[in-house]
Amino acid sequence: MALFIISLISYLLFSISKTKKSFHMLQQNFYDESGRYISWVWKNKKKTFLNIDIIFPLVLITYFFSKDISACLIIIFYFILLLIYHNQIKHDQSKKPLVITARIKRLFLVTMLLYAFIIGISYYFLKEYYLIYLVLGLITYLNYILVWVANICSKPIEKMVYLHYKHQAIKKLKAMNIPVIGITGSYGKTSSKNIVSDILNIKYNPFPTPKNFNTTYGLINSINNYLDKFNDIFIAEMGAFKRGEIKKTCDLMHPKYGIITTIGEAHLESFGSRENIQKGKFELVESLIPGGFAILNGDDPYQRSYQIKNNCDVYWIGIENHDVDLYADNIKLSHTGTSFDIHFKGDDNTYSFKTKLLGKHNVYNILSGILLGKKLGMSIDELKRGVNSIKVIEHRLELKKYGTINIIDDAYNSNPVGSKMAVEVLGLMPGTKIIVTPGMIELGEKQYELNYKFGTYIAQEVDYAILIGKNQTKPIYDGIIASNFDKDKIYVLNDVKEAFPLMRKLEHKDTYVLLENDLPDLFNE
Description:
alpha/beta
């Protein structure tokens, strides 16, 4: 009995370690919203079902020779697995680590209750220890599924918690009575949010949602825990994976002003079609309260062609298209920043601006911020100071040092538009140019085609390409090779950590390395 209890402890310690990994994947997949987590489980069968604990029945065979020896081997087996998993978790590549939120704590309690229930039932009915061990080994082996079941069991609790905090957030926003700026789009939402906030900060005290808190849950959390009584504008980044999600967020926030960055093919897999993406993003514009207005991109055909179903005022910005309310020209890009001129509709004056931000796509976001600021009563001098004060955004074409190597960190999230512009920024740099990328994801049936094009862009601008993940980056590799790039200057690795010592070997004077996209652990090979 004593050995059984000790073996049970080693088993539970390992199960908790494996559960932590499952929680991480569940959290990265938005708690299985739209079936994202269970879909990931089935798509990654090698990772989720071909684990080392699959050999547990072999260890259990020894039970028929000696119960005590079998119990000792089980103790040793699970302690070894515990060490292996602990080491894996410590060295995992992860865009975002597991955040121990109140929801995760509640889910952990439900999961442990499920484990306790199964262990209790097994002990009560099966009697034979080897049968109990077999059941325990099976449920730990199926831990990813057990966590999914626990998440389903938790939904009624989470619904009650959600409604409580939602009511609290609505009450707080109503009491503060400040204008809400909603920002959405397929790409560039976080950059646009931070840029708008930095510009408005010259005259106002805006509150931009922290980091990428862009779901309804994240926005509720932002309002309840971060929005301050001294803030006079709330800037809400709004993300979505399917139609109806932006509308749901707007019903909570009641935005007065709206900005759509661009409509592309991000999350095409979950939206189902480009048309659904277009309609989903315009839910923001069609939810604006009376007296508000939207700022749209006149260079984006998917914004130009959409028939808006309400009567809000709309203002347009552009670079290629000059038949807009505000456009930029004379754009000069360099490795130190960007300068450009702007022209307001009905104003013959030309105004010159400078920013530390890299890349032409950031000019669009700045134009939205300038036009919004002007409509909210800011002067040209205030706008210039605002643009000049824009801070470089973490992991979005952020220039930093790795020893003597210059890193262009664009690791947050890659998309067909941003990746092309990031490669163009790399092409502006002096010296040796290297790209490190695992490619783009969640592009549905167009994933191969768009990554192939990405490969052709890479071939035009870089000296060396380091691709992370042989299967994931095959279309990029094909695109680079088809562009007559030197095959010996392409390196394919399975772990991004291996790229850093390789950079050192490839380094020459004035070396610039673009880190384009950093896949979260659920996409590692």
